[in-house]
Amino acid sequence: MVAGEVGWGTVPSTEPLPASPRDPRELPSQLRGCRRVVAVTVHLPEFLLAAAGLVQRLGALGVRTDVLVAGAADKRSDEAAGLALAELRVPELERHRLALPIPVGADRADDLLAGLSELVGFDPERSVYCLAPAGDGTDPSQAIVGEAARRIARVYRLRLVRFTVTGGAAAADLELDTEEWARKCAALAACATQVTPLSGKREYFGV
Description:
Strand content: 15-25%
Radius of gyration: 20 Å
Strand order of the largest sheet: 3-2-1-4-5-7-6
Helix content: 25-40%
Structural class: alpha/beta
Largest sheet: 7 strands, mixed
Shape: globular
């Protein structure tokens, strides 16, 4: 008899099988349909603070992330940003620069839309997600960038996910494992020494 078969004269067990343990590295249920991400942020450090763990988790699953950094940066900051991304060790992550003057004004909306459209592509699949800042009402540049992402998501019928460092209104959260957390801290130390991950080992997203 092959292992696992029920033999004649035996009664199959009615005991429920033990539940499979939840994989701590899986994505929140709201994000499991994602196969490619187009992200936009004003500056790279704010993106890493809110979503470095998610980017690592996506990369481990083979999901590509293109992040469009809207704001201009000096040479030192730009080099630091490159070092920060290297600390994450995510081959499927690529940075694109618009280098718009800060603060990003409403007159730059067309530049943002053009940059995002180029990354999204002509006819994207429904599995392409757009990732953008939720905005806290204090940074007008974030509001402009977030609105551009909303318009792109509407035109291309993409799912829009908002990243935030606070969990109050978040619909999905992600708990980083020890390695993801260490790489996130190293990335932030490389490009923004004055920033500490205020949200701890969890990241929050509005979907």
